[in-house]
Design goal:
Structural class of chain A: alpha+beta
Order of helices and strands of chain B: HHEEEEEEEEEEEEHEEEE
Helix content of chain A: 40-55%
Number of domains of chain A: 2
Radius of gyration of chain A: 28 Å
Largest sheet of chain A: 6 strands, antiparallel
Keywords (chain B): Membrane, Transmembrane, Transmembrane helix
Shape of chain B: flat
Distance between the termini of chain A: 48 Å
Shape of chain A: elongated
Order of helices and strands of chain A: HHEEHHHEEHEHEEEEE
Largest interface: A-B, 41 and 34 residues
Strand order of the largest sheet of chain A: 3-6-7-8-9-5
Number of strands of chain A: 10
Number of strands of chain B: 16
Largest sheet of chain B: 6 strands, antiparallel
Keywords (chain A): Membrane, Transmembrane, Transmembrane helix
Oligomer: heterodimer
Number of helices of chain B: 3
Structural class of chain B: alpha+beta
Distance between the termini of chain B: 90 Å
Number of domains of chain B: 1
Helix content of chain B: 10-25%
Chain lengths: ~230, ~250
Amino acid sequence: MVMDLLAIFVIGVLAYRIYKKQEEEPKKWKAFIVIIIGLFSFSITMPGFDAFVKIPILPLGVWILYFIYRNKVEKWVMYRRFAWLGFIANFIFLAAAFLSYPLQNALYPENELSTYMASVKEAEIVSTHPSAEKQQLDKKSLKSQMNTMRKDSIPSEEWYYNTVVNVEPEDRKERFPYQLTGTETKWGSGTSAVIYVEVDGKGLLVWTPTKQMYYRADSSILKGGK
Amino acid sequence: MMKTTKLTISIGLLIILGLVFYWYFPRTPVAFPSDKELIENMNDTQTTIRVEKIRDKIKIDEEHFFVPFISTTGDYGTSYWEWQNTKWKVLNIDNSGEPKVWKIDSRDPSTFRLVWNLHEDDKVDHMKLFLNRERNFHVTNGVEYYYPKLQMEKRVETASVSYGTMKLPNDWLSVIESLIKMDSVASPDLFGDFDLNRHMYFAWKPYDKSGIEARLEGTINGYSFFNDDIELDLVRLMDDSYFETSH
């Protein structure tokens, strides 16, 4: 988002420089439209960098404009550069997309709990399994430990089998019998999380659209109940 | 001559406009039909289920009613009604009253209603309704996933009144809404079409007076007649091999 704005700014600066260099100054709104049409392109999609990258190869917009101005040579000379700037803008946006990855990671580190749990003002504990006890959220404890919880691995297979093997369904106790609801992810991160709380109140299983993470605290974030 | 033609055409246009306006302009619902009208309407809509007696007319919102009934063959059935522009229309008629979820707006779980009309011969004293997900795990591209078992329950008394409707309890709603939110980030191109069944399901368990599971004979899978668009999901009987009760 930030990088997209920067890309538009760069294109604006380039357009202004072309505009000033012309001996005969073209109409501003026409130059603007020419840039937009210049953006049209045929692109090929290449896999790479964990995603698909669209690389523009044919400047369709420039061709269309060339066709429109085919009988007005002096006009075409005036607007030609704007048309090509439109095509080049595709590459500027592409570069911005590449650069936004490290920026995104700096603002919203993908392994930091604070990205997924920035505000706990409205947080609440919901019991999601009958083995849960009547406990409440200890907001003070949660707040004071938010930035010091340690990331740990998720031994998912072990958790699963330790809970079910040789245990009758009616005796099974869920390792994560609570959900922490009402938390907010970091502003602008565009992500979302479902957070489960471990039975001892010291572990958080954070489930995001792309992965799961597990964090441990030193003391319980639950209180009361028995 | 010209004048009369023009006049005829404009009057014709006015009548057509008026009709279009009459049919398509949404109007506030008129009073919900009487028992007799409901029975006639349902028996005219289909021929398999013969409705004999309306048990109740439960208003869900201004434009939706749940109507439990008894058929001539003694089945305890359910029907679902919606106000559509000019009339009350039955969306579905079902001759079994086992619990179902009526998703009035499938994107908004606060509009979901659990509905039921249990057969009185089954003598169900109370039932438990569940929001469920099985425990699971998997590893994808080196990322480990663990899904805790979800089993949230709500007890409903059915001894004196064997039919009813229920909103989803608030804690169920917050659990479902957090998943909707995550799904919409994961695949925004779905335009908010959320499929709850991908994540969890509703279940129920009937009990008799002494607290053991009630045997169902009257309240069983039946014939369901779909008359118009409705999202109606069956609530499954709780499978004991997934039923965890430890406290």
